[in-house]
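Technical annex, item 7. During the second reporting period the consortium partners agreed on a shared format for inverse folding records so that results from different sites could be compared directly. Each record opens with the tokenized structure and is followed by the designed sequence. A conforming record, contributed by the partner at site C, is shown below for reference.
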């Protein structure tokens, strides 16, 4: 990489619209843990029984089902003042304001006073609003950025998302310790005001809509909002191979991640060692990998970066084979976790940029939500036999098997790069 090229690849991170993506990423990541791990701590502290706390895992269902209503955000404009802000900004502002109120209400209800099921209802509302906000923010990011900014945009979105998650856990817990849970949730909700400001100053993307005006009938709404995005995607050459690649690219990584915790325990590592190594090396490495992923996409291009990331992900799984042979060795654990997280950060940035590139700008919300739902299928369903495989093979052979499990995704990528290079690029976007 020449000095001028490196400077250009790094400078993209300082563009105003990339800073905006960072802020919106923070707003996207904030609500997630407020309805899960942080809420779990509050419920248990208030004496809620473990059985009821376990049921709160169902609160996250809207995140898995958001593809069902995502098409509506492509097709239904908001009325009044919000509508004047534009299709994307109007939805984002409306949801931001609703989330601020819902998160504050979530902290106001006292579970010790018998409000646990009311809290559950509000938590589901927060999750629904948060999932809908993700739809709008994802669509805005794709439409507002130029194609060459997708890598950096994906990295900034990840950084912002992790910052929001940090605020929802560390920040909220410190506030609750210093004051009360009610104040902690209210102050955490208030941090979303930075997102409100960003939305107000942000430009509305100039992209075509799937429906010229408000739909005149239910048939028109569902035809344009739901069927048209699928029809457009199906018309592309190699579309089935494309979907298989989306499903399989992270398969080997997901297979290993599902069992990594059990591997650490069986090797004899103390919980404190796992936590310290994961926090110090893992977090730093994934941040570096995420940043360099954005630089690599800008300099190398999306296809080459995906190939490099996919190969590194497979190699990182081989590192776990070495760990399984080494046993309780903290140094080996450190470099294995560090390398694996670096490859994950690099791959995540490139892969999110790839998904962004796939979306037709007329159906951004619908197609991106559907693609991310397919991505989520692999770690939630396809890896279910991972434990049986580990028992049958033993840890060293299992780790090697997960490296080989990355090969189908890489083979599909090579086919797409060589036979269907134009399949990635949907409808062209107007120049900014």
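Designed sequence (site C submission):
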């Amino acid at each position: 990489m020449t000095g001028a090229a490196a400077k250009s690849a790094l400078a993209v991170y300082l563009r105003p619209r990339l800073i905006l993506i960072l802020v919106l990423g923070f707003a996207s990541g904030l609500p997630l843990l407020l309805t899960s791990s942080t809420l779990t701590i509050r419920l248990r502290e208030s004496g809620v029984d473990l059985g009821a706390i376990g049921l709160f895992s169902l609160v996250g269902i809207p995140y898995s089902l958001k593809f069902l209503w995502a098409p509506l955000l492509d097709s239904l404009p908001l009325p009044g003042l919000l509508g004047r802000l534009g299709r994307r900004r109007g939805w984002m502002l409306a949801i931001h304001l609703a989330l601020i109120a819902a998160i504050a209400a979530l902290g106001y209800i006292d579970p010790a006073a018998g409000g646990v099921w009311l809290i559950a209802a509000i938590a589901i509302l927060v999750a629904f609003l948060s999932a809908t906000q993700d739809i709008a923010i994802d669509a805005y990011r794709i439409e507002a950025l130029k194609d060459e900014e997708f890598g950096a945009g994906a990295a900034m979105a990840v950084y912002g998302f992790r910052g929001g998650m940090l605020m929802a856990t560390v920040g909220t817990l410190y506030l609750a310790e210093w004051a009360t849970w009610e104040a902690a949730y209210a102050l955490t909700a208030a941090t979303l005001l930075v997102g409100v400001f960003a939305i107000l100053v942000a430009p509305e993307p100039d992209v075509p809509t799937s429906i010229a005006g408000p739909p005149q009938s239910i048939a028109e709404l569902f035809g344009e909002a739901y069927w048209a995005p699928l029809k457009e995607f199906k018309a592309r050459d190699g579309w089935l191979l494309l979907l298989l690649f989306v499903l399989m690219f992270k398969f080997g990584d997901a297979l290993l991640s599902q069992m990594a915790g059990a591997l650490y325990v069986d090797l004899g590592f103390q919980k404190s060692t796992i936590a310290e190594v994961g926090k110090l090396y893992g977090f730093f490495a994934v941040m570096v990998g995420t940043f360099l992923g954005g630089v690599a996409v800008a300099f190398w291009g999306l296809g080459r970066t995906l190939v490099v990331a996919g190969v590194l992900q497979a190699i990182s799984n081989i590192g776990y084979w070495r760990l399984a042979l080494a046993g309780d060795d903290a140094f080996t654990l450190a470099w294995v976790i560090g390398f694996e997280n670096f490859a994950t950060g690099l791959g995540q940035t490139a892969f999110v940029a790839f998904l962004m590139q796939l979306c037709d700008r007329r159906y951004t919300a619908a197609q991106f939500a559907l693609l991310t739902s397919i991505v989520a299928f692999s770690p939630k369903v396809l890896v279910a036999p991972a434990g049986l495989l580990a028992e049958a093979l033993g840890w060293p052979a299992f780790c090697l098997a997960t490296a080989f499990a990355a090969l189908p995704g890489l083979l599909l990528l090579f086919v797409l790069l060589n036979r269907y290079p134009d399949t990635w690029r949907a409808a062209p976007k107007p120049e900014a």
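Residues 25 and 229 are 25 Å apart (CA to CA). The longest helix spans residues 271-300. All partners now use this format for quarterly exchanges.
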